[in-house]
Amino acid sequence: MSDEAMQSFDIQAAWLRRAESDVSAFMAALATRLEESLPHQVVVHRKRLGLFSRESRVEKLTVLAGTANYDVFLDARNSLQCSRAKVVGGVTLKTETLDIAQWLAGLGAELANMAGRMGTTQTVLHDFLLS
Question: Where are the domains of the chain?
């Protein structure tokens, strides 16, 4: 296994341990990180902890990544439920349930693909403008 693959694995394992120990804190940290990194592709649903409380908790997180939507939410037992939906033209064709490790790996791969496409687009635009 390459050093990059091991580092990626270590990061995913650390996130998994964090998810298992305190899911509410994990959801809040994940939502904050994704909102800051991908403000236009992330939808976060929060619920106030009380009627007059300023505090809230993240109940559901959706990442709109290309042709897939990645959802993670807390169920009634306070455990994580993850899914990936294939979306074409605004219509959901297929939804599959994933565990948190698969969800994180799939999201990471999808984001890497998006970044690669953006880099290629930027290069083509740069070359066009300079020609």
Answer: 3-130
